[in-house]
Amino acid sequence: MARNELRPVIKLRSTAGTGYTYVTRKNRRSTPDRLVLRKYDPVLRRHAIFKEDR
């Protein structure tokens, strides 16, 4: 099965400067701009803003 380009694999990098990343998929049709989520950063031991890194 070929990978679908509609749902590419993206990295979410912490804006807190810890260098921690999450890897996920996103739907380009529903969210064409860069993804921003608030997720847990285990280096900080608290929630932080994670932005899509290309």
What's the arrangement of secondary structure elements?
Blueprint: E1 9-14, E2 21-25, E3 36-41, E4 46-53
Antiparallel strand pairs: 1-2, 1-4, 3-4
Total of helices:
0
**What is the architecture at the second tier of CATH?**
Single Sheet
Based on DSSP secondary structure assignment, what is the total number of beta strands?
A: 4
The assigned structural class equals mainly beta
Number of domains: 1
CATH domain topology = Rubrerythrin, domain 2
Q: Report the uncertain regions.
A: none
Across the major sheet, the strand order is 2-1-4-3
- Biggest sheet details: 4 strands, antiparallel
Distance between the termini: 24 Å
- Measured by DSSP, the beta-strand proportion falls in over 45%
Please tell me what the overall shape is: elongated
**What is the CATH H-level superfamily?**
Ribosomal protein L33
- What is the average of the pLDDT values? 94
Radius of gyration: 12 Å
The H/E string reads EEEE
Helix content: under 10%
What does the oligomeric state look like here?
A: single chain
CATH class designation: Mainly Beta
Characteristics:
single chain, 54 residues, mainly beta, Rubrerythrin, domain 2, four-stranded antiparallel sheet, 4 strands, elongated, Ribosomal_bL33_sf, ribonucleoprotein, structural constituent of ribosome, Ribosomal_zn-bd, Ribosomal_bL33
Can you describe this structure in just a few lines?
The chain is mainly beta and 54 residues long. It has one domain: Single Sheet (Rubrerythrin, domain 2), CATH 2.20.28. 0% of the residues lie in helices and 46% in strands.
